[in-house]
Amino acid sequence: MAAAPQAPGRGSVRKTRPLTVKTSLNNPYAICWSALEREHMHFILQTLEDRFKSLGLRKIEDKKKKRKQFLKKPSPDRCGTEVEKSEGPREKPPEGSEQGSGWTPVDVRKQLAIGINEVTRALERNGLLLVLVCRSAKPAILTSHLIQLSLSRAVPACQVPRLSERLAPVIGLKCVLALGFKKTTTAFDAEVRAIIPRVPSLHVPWLHGRPEDSGASLDTASSESRDREILDTSFEDLSKQKRKLVGSQQAVVLQPLKIKKLIPNPNKIRKPPKGKKTTSK
């Protein structure tokens, strides 16, 4: 006789978990930094390095404070009075012996925005004159958002190779991935004026380039003349004039958005549970 089918053991049947898929829109436009000429790169690095050395801007870190952080804290069970008796009264060191950690000329440090986060916040508040980004920042998405931000704020920006390699040891930092000069700067006024003409213009498909002073004035004058003409004309002529203005503008080419599907675990590789240990046969 055939044996009756046995019920599956406990825990042998597992419910299949639904596959999690995250959809995201891919940007069809390729946004990249404009190329900087080699002569301009050497000029920017040399001028900034000389200026930082002349100002003496440097970050000083107190090594004693770092050592205290790694020391073990005393357990709460021990009585604090016994520890104080064993140690005895502590003598305060003289004021001039220890040098606190921080930036040496604080006024000069406030005129700069150092780091990607600080440069991003300053650009959003529209408080920068110039933005320099290091080429060694990886992945590139860390600094790619600064292209649209700087162009929308009409701030000249460029990617400078070896920026962190040349300036970080002078300032006393490990790396300088982004550097911004604030509008309130007085210590770097001459350097910013010398660097801005050498910065290449950025290009973003949905934003116009950085307007010059003459071009901006011409645009405002033409817009004012058009507004006066529209106010003088009647309602029928106004609709015709609007059509002419729309036709005269440059056509914007729209590109389709691509949908991406991100699957975290496409092969469905399951990790063993933490409680059970894998036994080697």
UniProtKB/TrEMBL annotation:
Region feature (Disordered): 65-103
One biological-process term from Gene Ontology? tRNA 5'-leader removal
What terms describe the molecular function in GO for this protein? ribonuclease P activity; ribonuclease P RNA binding
Q: Which InterPro entries does this UniProt record tie to the protein?
A: Ribosomal_eL30-like_sf, Ribosomal_eL8/eL30/eS12/Gad45, Rpp38
Record GO cellular component, one term: ribonuclease MRP complex
Give start and end of each Ribosomal protein eL8/eL30/eS12/Gadd45 domain. Answer: 108-184
Q: What is this protein called?
A: Ribonuclease P/MRP subunit p38
**Species whose genome carries this gene:** Panthera tigris altaica (Siberian tiger)
